[in-house]
Amino acid sequence: ILNVEQSPQSLHVQEGDSTNFTCSFPSSNFYALHWYRWETAKSPEALFVMTLNGDEKKKGRISATLNTKEGYSYLYIKGSQPEDSATYLCAFYSGYSTLTFGKGTMLLVSP
Amino acid sequence: ETGVTQTPRHLVMGMTNKKSLKCEQHLGHNAMYWYKQSAKKPLELMFVYSLEERVENNSVPSRFSPECPNSSHLFLHLHTLQPEDSALYLCASGGRTEAFFGQGTRLTVV
Lengths: 111, 110
Description:
Number of helices of chain A: 0
Largest interface: A-B, 23 and 26 residues
Strand content of chain B: over 45%
Radius of gyration of chain B: 13 Å
Structural class of chain B: mainly beta
Order of helices and strands of chain B: EEEEEEEEEEE
Strand content of chain A: over 45%
Oligomer: heterodimer
Helix content of chain B: under 10%
């Protein structure tokens, strides 16, 4: 059983604050690390897929970094907006055709 | 629209019923997944099919029975479920560099 840990479990910030979450995963047999955004009543939506150590991805105000040697990824949100409120999931893809998810970080951004 | 279609979207069934959930994708993916999301719990992997072969079964009770007749279709057959099986069941397809989810089936067992 692969262990994918996300922290914090939940986060409440004010509009305009910048924030970041952590995803920890096994450093062996690494193939890819995925980040998803999951809004209530919708299906998870892919944000980033990272495959190389040192990868940095950016989409608007959201960015992510990857360290495969130590087994962690950070997701950053700059200038949070209420519409960023969602659960952010990371998922580790190993060589066993399995996408294993963490428990997610629930973000609430208050106006 | 993610390219992964799940039906039905909502299902209410009694504990003695037999029903099936369906997932369909035409994205050319070789791997398909069933996940369960219970209230206030993380996403749990149930089954993985790769090239129509089951590669993982996470100790799921036998009252859940998956079927993958071809690379585009995945079913989850349900029988004699318990009220605690009420949850959102999500199907996904993809793999290493991309994965897409269906809208899920909200299952209520009464």
